[in-house]
Specification:
Elements: H1 2-25, H2 52-58, H3 60-79, H4 82-99, H5 106-114, H6 124-140, H7 143-148, H8 150-161, H9 172-178, H10 181-196, H11 218-233, H12 237-241, H13 244-252, H14 271-275, E1 281-282, E2 285-286, H15 296-302, H16 308-326
Antiparallel strand pairs: 1-2
């Protein structure tokens, strides 16, 4: 198991290094060609403004990659496949994170208030990703947080590879109170932006800048290192307790249409509640604002050897079959049925 984790880790490091090498090998753009010496000097003709088809062709690769990555992410989501989910998390860190650095940000929430969103015509891939995020959140909940966000993917991969004995389990009562911190941060930064009109507070509440390797001031680097060290001991610390964008999507997830099915046995069974790494299950209720659709509880639901719902139904079916075979009277119906 440890060797397998290290293989995945070395694969991730190797692909990141190769991606950086390929990006560095690209010839610098924006250079102007010099006119040849001698000959006639004709005035430059006015170039035609690029058409929509030109802009779409120029962004076709980015659009195609967003579509391909989204297909991988949602295939893993619908199939509830652990290997596909791991592949999605690695792809998110490499593609969404280090290669493109196109994570959604609290700055985009500021744009909803200040009208300062990217220009649609030149940011088609980004708007496609944003549309997928919003639509999927309304349909299924915070799938973006659980699979697409590069920082969330990074912390989940850390959780996969780091020894479980290092983790500190936050008491449930404290976890429920701490989960409200991100909503306070969301409200605070929005008020700050509305009062000052300055979005520059974002790097102090979001560590996403690490993928672009910019804004490397001593204060921000200290905050980032502290956060990553704390994440070693408290799994998914930032996503669960501090992320203002996660809080915004959590509010939006109140509209979720297709929620996780719950059985009558969930009122007394605690298997899924104990297994949930996000603190999103409280008794029979799934807290959609905290749930990131990680699949853990849904895989337990499908496990006929662990889920009490299936165990009880299998036992009832076995009893009925034996009674039918022996000619015994059928089981009495429950009152009110």
């Amino acid at each position: 198991m440890i060797l397998t984790r290290w293989r995945y880790f070395l694969l991730l490091v190797g692909v990141v290094v190769m991606s950086g090498w390929m990006a560095a090998a690209q010839p610098p753009g924006g250079g102007e060609t010099q006119p040849p010496s001698g000959g006639f000097d004709f005035p430059d003709e006015e170039e035609e403004a690029p058409s929509w088809s030109d802009d779409i062709r120029a962004q076709a690769l980015d659009i195609g990659l967003v579509v391909a990555f989204s297909a991988l992410a949602f295939t893993s989501f619908f199939r509830k496949s652990v290997p596909l989910k791991l592949a999605t998390l690695i792809a998110s860190v490499i593609y969404i994170g280090f290669w493109k650095s196109t994570l959604l940000s609290i700055v985009n929430v500021f744009g909803l208030f200040g009208g300062n969103l990217p220009i649609f015509r030149y940011s088609l891939a980004w708007y496609l990703l944003a549309a997928i995020t919003i639509v999927s959140t309304i349909l299924w909940g915070r799938v973006y947080c659980g699979r697409i966000c590069a920082f969330g993917a990074l912390t989940q991969l850390m959780d996969q590879w780091l020894p479980a004995k290092w983790r500190v389990n936050v008491p449930r009562a404290l976890e429920r109170r701490a989960s409200l911190i991100k909503y306070g941060i969301l409200a605070g930064v929005i008020v700050y932006f509305l009062v000052t009109g300055n979005p520059g507070i974002y790097p102090y509440v979001e560590p996403f800048w690490l993928f672009g390797l910019h804004l490397r001031t001593p204060v921000l680097l200290t905050m980032l290192v502290t956060l990553l060290i704390a994440t070693v001991f408290v799994r998914n610390l930032y996503c669960r307790f501090l992320c203002p964008l996660g809080a915004f999507l959590g509010i939006l997830s109140k509209l979720t249409v297709f929620r996780i099915k719950r059985w009558s046995e969930c009122k007394t069974c605690k298997i899924c509640e104990k297994a949930c790494e996000w603190g999103a299950i409280r008794g029979p209720e799934i807290i959609m604002t905290e749930c990131v659709r990680c699949d853990d509880c849904e895989r337990l639901y499908e496990d006929t050897k662990k889920c009490p719902h299936h165990l009880i139904n299998i036992r009832k079916a076995d009893i009925l079959a034996r009674r039918a075979a022996t000619g015994a009277a059928p089981m009495p119906s429950s009152p009110g049925t």
